[in-house]
Amino acid sequence: xxxxxxxxxxxxxxxxxxxxxxxxxxxxxxxxxxxxxxxxxxxxxxxxxxxxxxxxxxxxxxxxxxxxxxxxxxxxxxxxxxxxxxxxxxxxxxxxxxxxxxxxxxxxxxxxxxxxxxxxxxxxxxxxxxxxxxxxxxxxxxxxxxxxxxxxxxxxxxxxxxxxxxxxxxxxxxxxxxxxxxxxxxxxxxxxxxxxxxxxxxxxxxxxxxxxxxxxxxxxxxxxxxxxxxxxxxxxxxxxxxxxxxxxxxxxxxxxxxxxxxxxxxxxxxxxxxxxxxxxxxxxxxxxxxxxxxxxxxxxxxxxxxxxxxxxxxxxxxxxxxxxxxxxxxxxxxxxxxxxxxxxxxxxxxxxxxxxxxxxxxxxxxxxxxxxxxxxxxxx
Length: 380
What we know:
Blueprint: E1 2-12, E2 15-25, E3 28-33, E4 44-47, E5 52-55, E6 57-62, E7 64-65, E8 68-69, H1 75-87, E9 90-95, H2 102-116, E10 123-124, E11 127-130, H3 152-161, E12 164-169, H4 176-185, E13 189-192, H5 199-208, E14 212-213, H6 229-236, E15 241-245, H7 253-263, E16 268-271, E17 283-287, E18 290-295, E19 298-301, H8 314-325, H9 329-332, H10 338-344, E20 360-363, E21 369-374, E22 377-378
Parallel strand pairs: 1-4, 1-5, 6-9, 9-10, 11-12, 12-13, 13-14, 14-15, 15-16
Antiparallel strand pairs: 1-2, 2-3, 5-20, 7-8, 17-18, 18-19, 20-21, 21-22
């Protein structure tokens, strides 16, 4: 069945084409039509009314939404998170776990595998294990009771249940270089976070194959003029991607501007780090056994006041980044899916090109998704 999305402004990596149209055949993009080109007859037509059509967003760091957490360990929770992510314009996501005992992590992996058997909404790129292999001095909202040293065997046991896409760990911990190489050998992206690593630690990890820095600036060694830490390393480097939560809480507006100025959108992956409390009212919640409160959309641990993840919706983060950086949308959009897909090895995902996956979102003037297509099927 052919679908034609007409009268749209196609925005993709290094492409901004107003008055265009996109033809979809099955789950793939068949052709992009420039303004004035004759359009084919289609079984189904969607008129975008001049709005932006861009690749579906890829959120590689999200713990939950709508009162559901990935570590609930139920298919129903993963399905609800996937449904709400889709409403944010996210067509692919990485359900993200917490620092917990292995049996609880295994239960979460089994829930993801069950959803993957019939992915009704957003697709799963693989699971992001945030911890438990972190620095106990940099736990943030992770539970210190369950922190443990890097353990590749544990990761592979979980990977056998459902694909692991990313592992967040502290690069300064003993055995990290061998751990990084083991992850890469199994197609898993190593990401440093919840870490007190020095710049020298960063360079060793990068030489071993480090690919990402988790929620940049948050729970990592700060920039100092005599030891630039992970924050300085992330600004200085031009290869390791930095995750950025563009909610103007985890990163101030000027820090978002600095991050994009130093790295360019080609070096950034925008994430939400969203909690079960996203899409929910202010109130009292729990995260990995730790109580936290949400007030005015800001989530903080009850005991320490530390930030506990976000309530950010993906499209709102893109809107914030666009307003703060003033970057051309065809460059900024790379940080919303293209970079993630290339890093995780997602085939033909994250751009609007013939032969690529028809995972697409139509944005309103305020960046709110008006329509979302997954594998060529309209889901919103």
